[in-house]
Each structure stands twice: as structure tokens, then as C-alpha cells.
Design brief:
27 helices; 534 residues; disordered N terminus
């Protein structure tokens, strides 16, 4: 269970501070404040020693401070902490540097030093252009135009024409970025709410929405941010529709942008991290074993860099996405017991980062952990994790809500809890039908469960064989693969028919696939060598 954290915003901010940030604040506040303001240092020290926020305890630690005074002190401390952090972090943030240049230019202009302000704005423009920060560029040009319009600055006539042209170009760029980022955001929202497209009707709606909101002539786009949001849009569009080859191609294009412009890894680190997560996920769903492990190694190397460690969000999200990928790796290879061994350390990290981790991410982790336990035959542990989903918030990922209930039912089936199977089957069927989440696979699963009541275990093999025969051909059906993405029903059935564990069946497939890939690589290498000799 995730610990409850206080909703007090000052205490939450205090919880995120590192030792270097606390030390910097102490120096900053003692240097810039009078004796009266040093009361907030006492408040800072008191909060720093608290594990959980308790206002009554806090007031006892601050003799002479009343409750109304405490509220004012907290507000003052919050502002001073942010000011201290801004001062400390400006050198590592392009956005903060640009904001500082703009602020300084405004101060110089207000002091009547127009030429100095314009020189600083030129410097800001260069920094903004280099880092594709067109929103800031628009603000810089807006202030330049104001100065040029209201004052005689000895600028050339060409300068004013250039400013007008730049303003028009940036306005068009910002408009395109807004439209593309809106499209990416709304598609991602659709996925968070619903998961993959359930049927042709879902797909038709997503296709229509995508077509209506995609800007004309996307093939002519060359700007970094426009391409970034375009590729993100295509990623979510393909992922929702389960067109996993398209999903892979655009995830690769997403990361390819950073390979073309390495400087942008520092400027837009958050989008780079998300792109690596999507590329890893694309390799996972396509079972690109070799590429998956190579990309994971690359991502783990990035996680150790200074840039990845500079920002709380970067540090947290690299940790979350790498751990998610590691679990995916074990699910992909059928090494369930090895995956289970990672769970305690992952849960420890999730507890450490509880302040930053959203409910959707916890939901996904719980489902992956439950699937690992299920694959390893530890059905009671699987049920424990599935209960967290079933009893938790039900307003996101309707797909996972459904498959958690189905896996919960199958866990009870494996445990032989016959007394509740019949009622549980009806309950899960009703829930999935209500969510319009029943595919042929699920219909066959419910049919099998109903027919298997009363059949002795030793006589079930023919029923499993029949079930496998009825669904095996659906592995290539795009809407049915939705089911296989959540629960490898085919491998489960094959394990029953072959008398092996589910992990053994999946691992055998992994080894066969790896051998085939190695043969293809060896043949390609041989062909290349022969071509060179000739």
C-alpha cells in the first residue's frame, strides 16, 4: 500500500528537497532576509524534522507563534523556497535561463535602458532559437516590438521588417504546435480512459478524430517540436488501434529526433524519457527480444547520467519506466520467478516516490505483478494484487479493470475454488459485457469455464485441446490480439495440453524466436561478407 501523504503544499515541497537544496536555502535566506524573516528558518528546521505533517505538533515546536501567524509564515517560507530553488536551478534549465533574460530585459527597459534591454533580448532570441523554444521567442519578439514601436532606438528599417516577419512565422509555428500537442494529448487521454480499441466502432471513431485534427501536409513539417508532437500523435493513434508496427515506427522516429539533435536531450528530457518508454513498449509487444534488451541497456545508461539525476521528475520516471520494462522482459521470456524477485525492490521505489507516482502507473504495476505471480503458479499472491485493482478507483483503464477481474476469476479456477467459480463467472461476464469488452477469446473462456464444471481434472485435457483449437487462429486477428496483450491465453492453454508450466511454454517460444533471429542475423552477415569479397 502507498503511504498517505499530507496535502499541505509546503510540507510536500519540503519532502522533495535534497541536501544541497536545503543547504542553499539556508545560505540564501540568511543573506537576503532581516532578523524578523529568520523566523521562517525556525519553521524550516521544524518541518525538516517531521516525518508526517501535524500542525498541533508544529505549533509546540514554535513557541510564541500563533495559528494565524503560522499560516503567514508558511506562505512566506513557500515563496522563499521557490525563489531559492530558482536561483539554484537556473544554470541547468533553459526555460529558467530564458525567463531570467526576459525578466532582466523588462527591468532594464523600465529603467529607461532601452538599448541594453534590446541587446539582452538578442541574446535571449539566440538561446531560444538554438533550443527551439518558440513560445519564449514569441515573448522576446513581443517585447522587442514594443520597444521599437514606442521609442527611437536607432535600429535600421530592415530590423523592423525582420521583426514583423519573425512574429508572423512564430505565430504560425505556435499555432501548429498547439494543434499537434492537443491531438497527442487527447489521444493519450482516450487511451488512459479506455485502453486499446475494442471493436470496429471504436477504431472508426479514433480514425475520424485523428483525420479531423491532423494538420494538412504533415509530410512538410521540419521543426523539432512540430515533429515531436506529430510522432507522439501517430504513436498513440497506432497503439490504440493495435497497429504495433506503426507504433514501433513512430516510437523510433520519436527517439530519432533526439539522435539528429542531441542538444534537445538536455532541453526536452521529459519527452526523451517518455519516448524511450514507448520504444521499449513497442519492442515488448512485437517481441523484438534483441532490440528490447539493447534499448533497455541504453536507457539504463542514460538513467545514470548527470542530466537524468538533476530533476526529480526525470529521476522518478526513468526509475519507473526501467522497472516496468524489466517486468515486461520477464513476462516476455516466461521467467516469472526471476521477475517476482524484483517486486520487493520495485515496491520500495514506488513507496519512496509515492508523492510523484500517479494512480494509472500504480494500476499498471499491480497488473504486471499479478500476471507474474499467476504465470509462476502463485495464484493467491496474484489475487492479492488483482484485488488492489478491483477495489481501487474504477475511472481509468476500463480494459485493465476488465482483465483484472478475468485474471482474478482464472486464479480462483486454478486454485480449485469451485464453490465460488459459478457466481464469479457470471459476475465477471456481466462486468465485461457492460464495458463492451468481450471479444471471441473471452466468450470462449467463459464457455469453457461453464462447460468444465463437474468434469474431473484428468478428463479436462480434451476440453483444453478444443479450446486451444477454437482460439489459436485468432493470434493474427488485430482486435483479438487485444486479449493476448493482457493475458497470454494461448500459452496458458498450451501449458495445459503439453503438461508444462506456463513459464516453460513461454520460455520455449522465446528461445525458438531467439534462435530464428540469430540465424537471420548470421545469414545477413554472411551475405554482406560475400558481397564485400566480390
Amino acid at each position: 500500500m502507498m503511504p498517505n501523504r499530507s496535502a499541505d503544499i509546503l510540507f510536500q515541497l519540503m519532502q522533495t528537497l535534497e541536501k544541497s537544496e536545503k543547504r542553499h536555502f539556508k545560505l540564501y535566506i540568511k543573506r537576503s532576509s532581516g532578523n524578523e524573516d529568520l523566523k521562517i528558518v525556525r519553521l524550516f528546521d521544524a518541518l525538516d524534522k517531521m516525518h508526517d505533517y501535524d500542525e498541533a505538533v508544529l505549533l509546540k515546536k514554535l513557541p510564541g507563534v500563533t495559528k494565524p501567524q503560522l499560516a503567514n509564515l508558511k506562505t512566506h517560507l513557500y515563496k522563499q523556497l521557490l525563489a531559492s530553488l530558482r536561483l539554484l536551478k537556473t544554470s541547468v534549465s533553459i526555460d529558467l535561463q530564458l525567463s531570467e533574460h526576459l525578466d532582466h530585459a523588462r527591468l532594464l527597459y523600465n529603467k529607461g535602458l532601452k538599448i541594453q534591454a534590446l541587446k539582452l533580448l538578442e541574446k535571449a532570441k539566440e538561446l531560444a532559437r538554438t533550443n527551439h523554444k518558440f513560445n519564449y521567442l514569441a515573448q522576446v519578439i513581443s517585447l522587442e516590438k514594443k520597444i521599437e514601436t514606442l521609442h527611437i532606438t536607432r535600429s535600421t528599417l530592415d530590423k523592423t521588417e525582420i521583426l514583423a516577419t519573425e512574429a508572423s512565422e512564430i505565430s504560425g509555428h505556435i499555432d501548429r504546435v498547439v494543434k499537434l500537442s492537443n491531438l497527442a494529448l487527447l489521444l493519450y487521454r482516450w487511451y488512459i480512459k479506455n485502453g486499446h480499441a475494442r471493436n470496429l466502432e471504436d477504431e472508426k471513431g479514433v480514425k475520424q478524430f485523428f483525420k479531423e485534427h491532423l494538420p494538412p501536409n504533415p509530410e512538410t513539417i521540419t521543426d523539432f517540436y512540430e515533429l515531436l508532437y506529430l510522432y507522439q500523435s501517430y504513436c498513440w493513434y497506432a497503439f490504440i488501434r493495435q497497429d504495433f508496427l506503426m507504433y514501433y515506427r513512430y516510437s523510433q522516429k520519436w527517439i530519432g529526433l533526439y539522435e539528429l539533435e542531441p542538444l534537445m536531450v538536455k532541453t526536452e528530457t521529459g519527452h526523451y524519457i517518455k519516448g524511450m518508454h514507448n520504444l521499449l513498449n513497442a519492442h515488448f509487444v512485437l517481441r523484438n527480444f534483441s532490440a528490447f534488451h539493447k534499448t533497455l541497456q541504453q536507457f539504463e545508461a542514460f538513467a545514470k547520467t548527470e542530466r537524468a539525476q538533476q530533476h526529480d521528475n526525470f529521476r522518478v520516471h526513468t526509475s519507473i519506466y526501467i522497472n516496468s520494462a524489466k517486468l515486461n522482459g520477464h513476462l516476455m521470456m516466461g521467467t516469472f520467478k526471476e521477475g517476482i524477485a524484483l517486486i520487493p525492490s520495485i515496491e520500495e521505489k514506488l513507496n519512496e516516490y509515492a508523492l510523484y507516482v500517479d494512480g494509472h502507473r500504480i494500476l499498471v504495476f499491480n497488473y504486471k505483478m499479478a500476471t507474474l505471480y499467476y504465470g509462476a503458479g502463485e495464484y493467491e499472491k496474484a489475487i492479492d494484487y488483482l484485488q488492489k485493482i478491483i477495489n481501487g478507483p474504477g475511472d481509468i483503464r476500463n480494459d485493465l479493470q476488465c482483465y483484472a477481474r478475468l485474471l482474478h476469476l482464472m486464479s480462483h479456477y486454478e486454485l480449485g475454488n469451485d464453490s465460488i467459480i459459478e457466481s464469479l463467472t457470471k459476475s465477471v461476464y456481466r462486468f465485461m459485457a457492460k464495458m463492451e469488452n468481450l471479444t471471441v477469446i473471452e466468450e470462449e473462456m467463459f464457455r469453457f469455464l461453464k462447460q468444465s464444471f463437474g468434469i474431473p481434472t484428468r478428463q479436462l485435457k480434451p476440453e483444453f485441446e478444443k479450446f486451444l483449437y477454437n482460439v489459436k487462429h485468432l493470434e493474427t486477428n488485430r482486435f483479438e490480439t487485444r486479449s493476448f496483450a493482457y493475458l497470454d491465453t494461448i500459452s496458458w492453454l498450451e501449458s495445459k495440453v503439453q503438461g508444462l508450466t506456463m513459464g516453460e511454454v513461454i520460455h520455449k517460444k522465446y528461445l525458438q524466436s531467439k534462435r530464428s533471429a540469430d540465424k537471420i542475423k548470421a545469414a545477413a552477415k554472411k551475405k554482406t561478407a560475400a558481397a564485400r569479397r566480390s
